[in-house]
Amino acid sequence: MRPGSKRINKYLSESGACSRRGADRLIEEGRVTINGVTATLGSSVSDGDVVELDGKGILPADDRIYLAFNKPLGITCTTDHDDPTNIIDYINYPERIFPIGRLDKNSSGLILLTNDGDIVNRLLRAENNHEKEYIVSVDKPLRSDFRSKMESGLPVLGQITLPCEVEVLGSRRFRIVLHQGLNRQIRRMCEYLGYRVVKLRRVRFMNIELGDLPLGEYRRLTPRETEEITKNDLHFNP
Question: Could you report the per-residue pLDDT of 182-230, keeping only the tens digit for each?
Fold first, then answer.
């Protein structure tokens, strides 16, 4: 093996594309190429080599960017530079990145950004399996049946929302954990019950917490956080 190179299965697992065992299967199935040549279990990868899985490039672990950003109100989760409120110009990160999912312009809190297009698709495809936690304030006192009605599911956009977890924090304030991401879901659920959301802040996505990250600031994900969002092998059926 060339100096500085690594086995292709190790490269794939470190990139977050799959587990080491999963990499072996993908290689045996002929789905991995190195510089356009089908890889084998004995293949190695060096700096500058182009690795593709099913025709899509796999970024080396060191080149991947994962950011947690505390989005202020008024910032739009779009990459459209014609929109003066777009999140990309606001952050002004030196490399090309894009948001994973979105938060409404009138909502604040945790949003993730990355340069890894593959993980964006993977996370959004499996969105109903990922917990998203919010702190919400509404315009009038919560009735005694608010929690049970929210948790049991409400009609939104032609379907009944999945079960969720709700904790009442005050007369007009609650915490909610969703397992799906319908458009303006929390606002629509509250509207159905006769409430208007006046403040909505996302404080957690999966294992990544907003914590004390200042408003309008971002940070790199920790190795443990990165491992959690990249660990699931979603490229093949076990």
Answer: 889 999 999 999 999 999 999 999 999 999 999 999 999 998 888 888 7
Q: What CA–CA distance (Å, rounded) separates 36 from 129?
A: 35
Active site residue 89: no
- Catalytic pick from 47, 104, 139, 212? 104
* Confidence (pTM): 0.75
Q: Sketch out the chain's domains with CATH numbers.
A: 6-62 (3.10.290.10), 64-127+217-230 (3.30.70.580), 131-205 (3.30.70.1560)
Tokens of 94: 């030196």
Q: Are strands 56-57 and 32-34 parallel, antiparallel or unpaired?
A: unpaired
Do the bridges between strand 197-205 and strand 108-114 make them parallel or antiparallel, or are there none, so unpaired?
parallel
Q: Where are the alpha helices (DSSP H) in the chain?
A: 8-15, 20-28, 87-91, 117-125, 146-152, 185-192, 223-230
